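Cross-posted from the bioinformatics board.
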Amino acid sequence: MSGWRTAAGWTAAALVVVACGKGGEHGGAAAGGGATASAAVPFPVDTAQAATITGRVAFTGAHPPAQRIDMGAEPTCAAKHPNGAFTETVVVNDNGTLRNVFVYVKSGLPANLTFPVPSTPVEIDQDGCMYTPHVFGIQVGQTLNIKNADGLLHNIKARPTINRPFNVSQPTSMTTPRSFTAAEVMVPLECNVHSWMNAFVGVRSDPYYSVTGADGAFNIGRLPAGTYTIEAWSEHYGTQTQQVTVAAHESKAITFTFHG
Amino acid sequence: MARDRSARRPAGPSARLGFGASVTGVVALLALLAFRTPASPHAPQQTPAPDAQGRLVYQKWCAGCHGDSGRGDGYAATRLWPRPRDFTRALYQVRTTATGELPRDEDIRHVVDEGMPGTSMPAWKATLSSDERAAVVRYVKSFGNFQGNPPTAITMGSKPGGGSAAVDSGRALYRKIECWKCHGNAGRGDGPSAARLKDDFNNPIRAADLTANWRFNGGGTVEDIYRRLRTGLDGTPMPSFNDLIDGHIVSDADLWRVAMYVRSLSPEETPRVRDVVRADRAAALPGGPDDSAWTRVERFYLPLVGQVIERPRNFAPAVSGVFVQAVHDGAHLAIRVSWSDQSKSPDTTWTTWRGRMARTMADDSVPFDTLSPFPDRLVIQFPVSAPSGMERPYFLMGNADHPVYLWDWSSTTGGAAEAVAHGLGRQEPIGAQPDSVTAVAAWHDGAWSVQFVRALVTADSTNRLQFAPGRAIPMSVYAWDGSNNEDGTRAAIGSWNAIYLAEPVRAGVYVWPVVAALLAFGLLLLAIRQAQRAAAQAAPRAASEPQGMEAV
């Protein structure tokens, strides 16, 4: 941990990081502009010094097939899935990687480091009686806009164990803002009207997280040099961790492999 | 409330069950006291500190269900459904605070005081002192994380007027905000999403039957219902509709109107349990369970409880009570039984529910195939002959010496058959005869109604009760919901009630009282006359005698 500077410095660093970041495809450090960056302490690891951990989540073996969802009771939603709707518990990409894995820095950041709350909200949509995205990250205090594009009754219920649970009714097209008060991986979301609907939110107090998409890749950038425990969380296969040490300006690629 | 009612009743089975439960409770309590809180001979006089007092009250009265560490895992927990609350999550259904907020102390206190109708949680206000209840609230809070902002109660708007127009508007809103998705078209908890509902502990949970407001967890008044709409029931699928007001999608007054409509689905008064079902004499019997003639016949509510005496037992009965109506025409007796049942069993929509219920209540269940199609079933039980005294057969389908006579309706056969039973599960059919009981059933929006008809007197009277007007005949009811895995001994049962067939009203009933009244009036006049005459004769002496004598 040598080379760490003051917490205030790191906070300012994060502000600058956030202000400069334009938000990668995978959501890592995809935070909004930190409007409160009045303390213009120089970023201890400037952009040129920042480290990056990238990689992919591979998958081997057999996996449970996606189940076709019977939306017969909800014709409006069924019509939005002409080729059928399928469960997203396990989605293996064409390139043999696993989608919807939440990858984040579990530990290694100095405990006294704090990060500004991004002003850009995260959005989850209920469209065709499915949650989009199915797995995503958010920062503590950041606004989660819960959108109902279906215009029919959904209840959005968060079932955290650390945060306070909530259960909000949305019987029509509307957007409900919510937020979380504590880091928690993961907070399950569900709809009780449509028992097949579920999603997972990784709530972090820092911006160092990423979710694998159609290419199975993740990217956690703008990290200070250090040794980190990186965890990969899968809805079906649980978690895996790896220790990674990155030096300033280093970009290291790691691979998680889940076995069916 | 159901508990209160059965407690007041004479020693029927529910009273006996209650007694048995009390005995079990007392034994458990003694065990708890003996092993967990040994009396200290040194400091018995000391007033315990608040937490210590709360702990004592909790361990004595609460831990049996809620568990020593508040995890809802007391020794009784696996037999209870809904399960006792796990306090470690600080998650409370009945609150005055917004969804996601902690409850106020007053909210927890309210549930301790009043209990949770429709669940096993009793009201404690008559058992525990105010201090004890306050202490137990503090102790219960210590199991969960109550850090953070002190919760504040939501601001309740004022209830709009409008009477039946407001109720009609509430009905339209009930459709608009899609309450029916879970609670069903007529509010009986039979909506398309009902079969898959689960609570935050992944236990199956029913959408409330809105036609039985005396069983609403958070209370059955319009105000209670409105508050549930605003706050939701956290930990259950019931969401908060608060955001709809903030988003100007519905108004606060609209939510009041929904609450008024929901309240209107239940009877104005909580049904009182009466011992005797009266069958008045009618010129003709109704043509079937949907005949509008039944709307003019008085309804009698008979509460049912799970059969927990013989194994396999039923700790989570689906049917909590039935309404019974009866009329006779001098030759035939018609009995209509109606009750809420969310499924028309066998119904594959409820297959997953059956599996989940079987796992939840596995502790006491003999394994069975949750795919075998159990029907819905209703049995009316009578003695085989009208008893001359007070003695009735054993209420659980009689015994070897004193059998019972049954009318047995099933949703699979659609009709009824007669049977004789010598105990639960020891039932033998009585072969079909020209004058056998008939039954016609109808299922609408989560409710069965079945009309039974039988001749008062039958050709063959072996084991077949002969009805006669003018006397109370013992009667009781059993119900099974096949989609709740109910079959055989896994039934909902009632205590012995009675049915009384009114005798035809003779003209004399009206004439003789009038004659008697006239006669009495005449005699009275005569007596007054004589008294006045006597007084007139005595008048000259009156001045010299005390006044009071006249009154004698």
